[in-house]
Amino acid sequence: MNIDAVKRLNATEIKSLHTKSMKRDFPQNELRPYSAMKRLLKKNEYGVYRAYSNGEPVGYFAVLSTGGNVILLDYFAVEYGMRSRGIGSKLFQAFAQIISKDYPNADAVVIECEAPYAAENPDEKKLRERRIGFYLKNGVVMTEHYWKAFGVEYNLLALPVKGADITPVDFGREIHNLYLSSFGRLFTIHAKNKLKHWKK
After folding, report:
1. What is the pTM assigned to this prediction?
2. Domain that holds residue 77
């Protein structure tokens, strides 16, 4: 199955996706209210895209950007009925192409992944490790930063865009700025190296 089209959704389409798919695909405490998405859309800081194969939706992703050189992959999901068909990597490739085309200022995409070392049980830890493994095999790199928001700890991963050098980028500071724009209030940054915990 190949992805042959990616469409940027308008506000009405995003509302429908939020109601029918996103509420099912993401825990309530991790999902932005549609009203928050709409506010960011009006500021031209949010983009939601849906991918298609032969006219059938196969996945979607959302991006938060304030026009700087680092943007946030806010949500990424294969459609519920399309999972376990090998579409995930193709969807991520389509996402990377969209970033290069629609966000010319971007040098990197920052990706939050729930930290395995903070999992409540072994099964959850394995799930988080698989999720991180998916991104790593698709060209994403682990940064030394982690992030805590709404009581959840995240490893911060990064996707270089167009071969950009992301070595000097302070992803802790960048995601702080993105969240500040998104929510309008300060969040705590944790920038100590926690990689040793994930590797065990």
Report:
1. 0.87
2. 1-104
